[in-house]
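wait is this the right file?? whatever heres the structure
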């Protein structure tokens, strides 16, 4: 509310690559290029748990009510951790045999125990409690460049060069496909996508010098 610095989270020995806030705001998880992930008390700014992964921590997702933490390492492996004990629960059986299968991003599906992992071949949805692969959303013929999850956790938009596909999370069914788009006009080439509300998406072009932001109504975008 005031914009004042409440405290600084000091404890990593290399560059911090990301941070995620737990539901309720009582805890914060930070990932570091040295492979460490620290869970902090947001009020006291003291570390609660430290997790170490091989390589660098390039992705962190707080799953469900905050009981589990998913960590993506630079080796392409995604591990589910118990956020309370700091102990590993399971390793998701994502394939890393080919570059196209290598996971480059993870995000929690809001309001559920599911996790979305992205590789060039598509987005996979996993149940973090069982480690089961629930759905694989494959963008054919183009490789998946990015994805976004709706705030309610019911929709996922996958982004390829010149196209966006909107999927139903519960069934894995494709709902709408927007193809033959001009990447420069619609922000579908290497863009950062996000949902701003029901049916409204935004695309941020990171390659643009002015970092263009474009808004799209997915209900009327045909």
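ok assuming it is, sequence goes like this
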């Amino acid at each position: 509310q005031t914009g004042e610095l409440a405290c600084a989270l000091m404890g990593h020995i290399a560059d911090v690559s990301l941070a995620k806030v737990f539901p309720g705001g009582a805890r914060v998880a930070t990932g570091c290029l040295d492979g460490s992930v620290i869970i902090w008390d947001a009020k006291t700014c003291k570390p609660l748990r430290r997790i170490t992964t091989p390589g660098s921590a390039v992705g962190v997702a707080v799953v469900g009510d905050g009981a589990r933490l998913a960590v993506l390492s630079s080796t392409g492996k995604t591990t589910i951790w118990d956020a309370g004990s700091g102990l590993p629960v399971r390793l998701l059986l994502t394939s890393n045999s080919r570059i196209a299968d290598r996971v480059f991003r993870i995000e929690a599906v809001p309001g559920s125990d599911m996790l979305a992992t992205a590789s060039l071949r598509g987005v996979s949805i996993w149940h973090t409690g069982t480690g089961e692969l629930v759905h694989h959303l494959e963008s054919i013929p183009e490789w998946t460049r990015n994805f976004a999850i709706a705030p309610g956790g019911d929709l996922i938009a996958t982004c390829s060069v010149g196209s966006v596909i909107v999927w139903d999370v519960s069934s894995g069914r494709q709902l709408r496909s927007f193809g033959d788009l001009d990447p420069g006009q619609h922000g579908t080439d290497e863009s950062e996508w996000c949902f701003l509300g029901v049916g409204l998406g935004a695309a941020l072009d990171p390659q643009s010098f002015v970092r263009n932001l474009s808004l799209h109504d997915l209900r009327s975008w045909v």
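The longest helix spans residues 183-186. so i think its the right one actually
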